[in-house]
Amino acid sequence: MIALTLSLVLAYTDQEARSLFTEANDAYYRQEYPAAIEKYQRLVAAGQGGPDVLFNLGSAHLAANELGPAVLYLTRASRLSHDDDIAAQLAVAQQRQLDQVIGAQETEPFLQRLARAVDDRLVTIGFLVSWWLAFVLLVVFFRSPSGRRTVLGLATLIVFVIAIALGGVVGVHAWVTTSVQEAVVMVPTAPARQFPGENAKIAFEVHAGLLVRVMEDTGRYLRIRLPNALEGWVEKTNVTPL
Amino acid sequence: MARTGSALAITVLLLAAGPVLGAELEFYMTVDRDKVGTEDTFKCEIVVSNAPEGAVVQFPTPQDFEVLSRSESTQMSYSMGSGGMAQIRQIRKFTLVMRANRAGHLTIPAAGLQTAARTYKSDAIKLEVVPGRLAPDPRSQPKPPPNPFGLPPGFPFADDDDFPGAQPGSNPFDDEPGIPKSDSDLFLRSSLDRPEVFVGEQVTLSLLIYSRMDLMGVDSVTMPKLEGFLAQDIASPTNLQPEERSVGGVRYRAYLLRSKALFPLKPGDIDIEAAEADIASGVYPFSQRKMHRKSNALSLKVKPLPAGATNVGKWRLSSTTNSTDIALGEPVQLKVILEGRGNLKAVTLPKLEAPPSFRVFDPQQTEKSQITKNQVGGQRTTEYVLVPQQTGRFEVPGLTLEYFDPESQQIERTATDPITVVVRPSNTGANAMAAPANNGTQTEPAARNQLVGGGLKSLRHTATFSEPRKSFWSVAAFLPLAIAPLALSLVLAVVSFVRARAGQEDEQSKKNKQAKAARKRLAQAEKLAGGGSTVEFYAEVDKALRSFLEARLSQNVTGLTRPQLDEVMKSANVSEAVRGRVLGVFETCDLGRYAPGMGDASARQRALEDAVHAMEVWP
Hints:
The complex is a heterodimer of chains A (242) and B (619).
Chain A: H1 2-10, H2 14-29, H3 33-45, H4 51-63, H5 67-80, H6 84-96, H7 110-117, H8 120-143, H9 149-179, E1 181-185, E2 189-193, E3 202-207, E4 211-217, E5 221-225, E6 231-235, E7 239-241
Antiparallel strand pairs in A: 1-4, 1-7, 2-3, 4-5, 5-6
Chain B: E1 2-3, E2 7-8, E3 20-21, E4 25-31, E5 35-37, E6 42-49, E7 56-58, E8 65-80, E9 86-100, E10 104-108, E11 112-114, E12 119-121, E13 125-130, E14 186-192, E15 196-198, E16 203-211, E17 215-222, E18 229-235, E19 242-247, E20 250-264, E21 268-272, E22 276-281, E23 289-294, E24 298-303, E25 311-312, E26 314-321, E27 325-327, E28 332-341, E29 358-360, E30 364-372, E31 375-388, E32 392-396, E33 400-405, E34 410-415, E35 419-424, H1 428-434, H2 478-529, H3 534-553, H4 562-571, H5 576-594, H6 601-616
Parallel strand pairs in B: 3-9, 5-13, 15-24, 25-33, 27-35
Antiparallel strand pairs in B: 1-4, 2-4, 4-6, 6-9, 7-11, 8-9, 10-13, 11-12, 14-16, 16-20, 17-22, 18-20, 19-20, 21-24, 22-23, 26-28, 28-31, 29-31, 30-31, 32-35, 33-34
């Protein structure tokens, strides 16, 4: 609530936001990456960080060779906008990333890919429309004389199937969004321990820019899982959730 | 200086016509200090003045002291005495370099002077001897004159005579070797030119033979394991060249056996073990003698480098190119020269960050090591070949090398200048295009302006400054909207059910109404029971009963025969008694309408009662 209030108070007018955005771009082209990042961050903090601002912010971090923030903001941008530029920029960041996860699945699990691929707004609206239409047709079906019921019943069935399918996609999207929590390693090197604690043996190390899945949160430590199912506990301060 | 001894005056008559020797005889013994260490040497001087002819000095033979060397000098002086008499004074001075064998309050016995007339004795000298070594007496340390022509320290390739440690044995860090007690005539000494250095800084290890004997040669030299160092030979002479040196007042010939430049690899105190050598002395083949000698061990303090420092020394970077205006496809040769002092092999040059439009081949390196005045250094030439892939004006950035200079103890920086290269389109392409295509002449393909994809994408220059929207399913209205049709359908179903239930109640009431109407009709027939048409009376009773049955059976019974009616009632689970009574009434009605004698009042009343009874007993 406080953050929302602050963002409303600190929000820039459209003209101010555009001016700040241009200043940040100019700083980027002068290779003054810290200055560019600071200006983009101001837009994000004011609640005006759409996919374009996030893309430029991630690109500035990438140009400054700060892989952790680069992957974080570019991935956030990709979740908001399916764009070839964002994918290409992310590919460059992943090429520079130090960790090679051996035995990782080449692609995401099906449900996550499905959730990423669909436009949740479109699917949700489609679900609601078809769902309502199916029930209207059902009522009409029961009210209609027996002679017209065959065609009407078939149409009702088809609309119901469509509505349930779209509802399933909406459910998958909701599940992936709420249950599958991902994070990006922000520090150059983060030790992953066998159990949460300073004295725990270090199982492996992960490096800036690696995208991991968060499985458990104990407060100070997070249990992370790599795409090849390798798990370890890292300090919360070493990663940033998407 | 302690001076002891008695001055003896002897008056000698001199010849009147000429000079005479000095009449006084002096004999005394002195030492140059009162307190010494067991490892120190000191000088003991025995002075005889105006000794008569044939006088013999009897040197002390101390048990607690070792006489390392003995030398003698004579001095004559001439002076005019009173009365115009000339006097000649002869002074003989014997210098003994001595060293105490143990600590304590020791005494040097008296020396003696034996003349023909008598024997003179000097006083014995008492000395305090402490273990180890005392600081040298500043009186015995002559200061060298300053060099007015010396270059300032740190100047590249300056005359290193100005630097401490450039010449072993001539610098303040070169500790004067102690003379071993057992091998004072021939010993081996290791020395470092400075007591502490930084990691990667050069320190010079020298191994020398100190000898007062004739040397034939050195058979073998075993240098210590120099763990923790990178080592490089500076000098390893095959012919021994002597150099006169004085050690504690004793003159030695020093021979340099080995000299090595050491570069420490890690900080801390590093011990260097003793070196060993087999030395042959004497004159071949008569007095040849082989001796094994072991030098002293050394310790070096190595200081860590400041944070961020990797290269150590004093370096200078420069660069040259063969051309800066070239055609597309022509190579640019860029030479980067690193020169200076230090461990050249340990210096890491930064990577050349050429523009992406240049293809950079692996550089070739040549190194030339130089040793100037015991300082290791050299020159490394790195030659890059850059081939432009695009036309235009490009800047090859300069290289910057950071290094730690141990002399200034600061991180210094040396850099090459950036180079601007202009790449013009190649005219090879025009020649190739002018050549006939079908003459079979092979021409070199023209270099092309290569426009390669990849790299970072351009920034967005237009943007929507909106808060990233939430998923629509997370909006509060989504769930009610999704549940609403289901809930509405349920409501509709319930309403329909209720209405259906309500419809069923109407049917029952309809039946009841019909039954009620039937009874009314029967009451109408009852009015005809007293008088009126017989046919109408029985027809009215018949209609009343049929109306009652239609209400009860929910079925039209008009036109049904009595067996059919019986069958309908049976299917409606009407008891046989009721069925018989109903059918009896219909039979009475038929008889009443068509048979004579049924029109009297009693018959009508009986028919009416049967009909009422049939309705009443209906379940």
